[in-house]
Amino acid sequence: MDFDPVLLARIQFAFTISFHIIFPSFTIGLSAYIATLEIMWSITGRDHYKRISAFWTRIFAVSFAMGVVSGLVLSYELGTNWSRFSAAFGNIIGPLAGYEVLAAFFLEATFLGILLFGRDRVPRWLHVFSACAVAVGTATSAFWILSANSFMHTPAGYVMKNGVAEPTDWWAIVFNPSFPYRFTHMLNAAYLTGGFVVLAVGARYLLAGRHVAEARTMLRMAIGLLVILAPLQLFLGDQHGLNTLKHQPIKVAAMEAHWDGSKPGDFHIFAWPDAKGERNLFAISIPHGSSLILTHKWDGLFPGLKSVPPSDRPPLVSVFFAFRIMIGIGFLMIAAALVGAFLWWRGRLFDTRWYLRIVAQCWWIGFVAVISGWLVTESGRQPWIVQGLMRTADATSPVLGSAVAVTLVLFVLVYGIVFSAGIYYINRLLAKGLDVAGQDEPGPKGGRPFAAAELAGREALGGRSP
Amino acid sequence: MTFGAVTVDLPLIWATIIGIAVVMYVVMDGFDLGLGILFPFADNEGERDQMMATIKMFWDGNETWLIMGGVGLLVAFPRAYAILMPALYIPVIVMLLGLIFRGVAFEFRSISRSKKQWNLAFAAGSTVAALSQGVILGGLIQGIRVANGEFAGGTFDWATPFAIVCGLGVIAGYALLGSTWLIMKAEGPVAQRAQTHARKALLLVLFFMGAVSLWTPLTIPRIADRWFSLPNFFYLWPVPVVTAIVAFIVWRAIERGRDSTPFLAAIGLFLLGFLGLVISWFPYLVPPNLTIWDTAAVPASQIFMLVGTLVLLPITLGYTALTYWLFRGKVKEGEGYH
Question: Which residues of chain B are within 8 Å of residue A122 when distances are taken between CB atoms?
Fold first, then answer.
């Protein structure tokens, strides 16, 4: 049996990196949320925040462990599967990936120990500081990795010598043309992803009548964040798209399934791009829609797929549909955030059950949007691994296709087991709920009625402490 | 690279940094992988909880050194990275899969109602990772076929009896680190049993160290030449002698029921083993052909990364030490993961 090593290496990398990105896109947001809770705890002194923080820290620990082990794979896979890419671009990709490990991962891994296990061992300020260090660390990780990735889309600050890229200007490399757009878009996506998980869990507890006080705090904090970030993402995404049009017009043509650059582009709500026939089947379109979005002009022109030979075009179906899934979820997020904010303003957020029921089911939308977005940008760069400089087909390792096939099967099996177990255990933690031991609310046996009254008063005032 | 009158050998500096990362990794992840290797020999779940509690706050940081080593190689010696990874394709990926299982086992085991499958994942994952690391070491020592700056061998070039012996040696070595760690960090039956394990592991380690020390000069002329040619031999003969003395110190410290001496002396044994490898190896990064200078990244890349490393590596070492100090002291019986 003959195996195509390039295709197999691509499938393997796509599989392992898609698995990996789920966890960072959750833990980046969640760590920021935990840091916020810890700060609020240290300011207000209310154990209410400590309990919520402890609960999410537990879930964070499981997700982070899965992120660490799946990320470890990637740092070696660049060599095992893409050694020719590593040899040609190691001078540039290496230091960027290196800074990710140094500046961020060490911060996370070391302070994580204190965050997870040190609450009773270290002074309160150090615990709060560790939570912040982990949040900063995860975001810094994203900074460097996205810089390395962006270089592959919009290389800058280098010179090619005998097929090997050498750096000439590190500032230009790190802040290459697509980096600021990709970084802000992805970081915001991570905060949205974490926000929707917190929103869904809060709604789930509220519907079940469990941990009512904490669930309300989760809901308020999540909606307060999402109502700003969800619309912001529309703006950031639009800016990123315009940047892509400037530097990778064929990717945009694939996203829009736009064939003929001499005519204005319609926005296809649905279509089946036919790569062989160079046309769209079953198209339902908004006339001139894409031209309006991309050029802000009714008759604006932008390059079509036909402007390059078929061998230089990315796979159309995956790019086209992944883009629509991402955008669809983006608008869903905006709607959910705005409706939530409206209900909060009217004072009906906590007892509008239809709304709570919907958002309780929405925990996964951020993840799907993130993976779809990456599919658009990475598939859209094909057939290049580094835009315009190296083709993916020339980047693989001198290993047999069969070896890649066998390890791919192993990855699928192992990740299948680990992933299912991870989801299962996170669900168990959610079902178990918050740790009720040591609550500052009085138990059924009474205790401190005055404190109870004070607490009720605070809740009534919207969670503000005196 | 020259600054005025001072010439700086960047590849040598980077080889040293990666050497430090590898040593940090082997010693630190060594003891927590060793715990996984010893996991099946624990008496009950309570003991296993206690064992895990001794490393729960460390393993994550420990494993980061492996990423540091891999990425360090990519940063400073991209051509070596691009040759070694395909050459050691199978053991590298098997090691990663082993590390995945044992990594998630920490959290999953503590949440799971039935702990059995995650005990197995932790033990098997740790053992497989240790075995793979030894096989990778053995595969490197044997040498790697290179043509036109690329790996030119077969998928299973690494699979030799020698590499398997190295793999078993690393399992024994990590078991030694793990058991002496438990002597230092645990109380009660776990610490007592660790003494028995440590003695057995030490004997196995000495056996494998001896086997590799004889095997390599007998089959690889360049290594024989390095150790036994004159005047090298005059400088190098203390290495095996000191190794023997340190091994004796480990043994006696275990016998006398010392708390931390066995662990610290076992680390000394590892450092000496590493020194022996460096002596056999230097300056090759892809033996027997390519040296650290042949495979180095351009100076601009090595310097860019060096700046950050020289600032952050000491800080990292500092708070790694702080973490170990904060979580010092023994873990009592009945103390769990969370």
Answer: 326
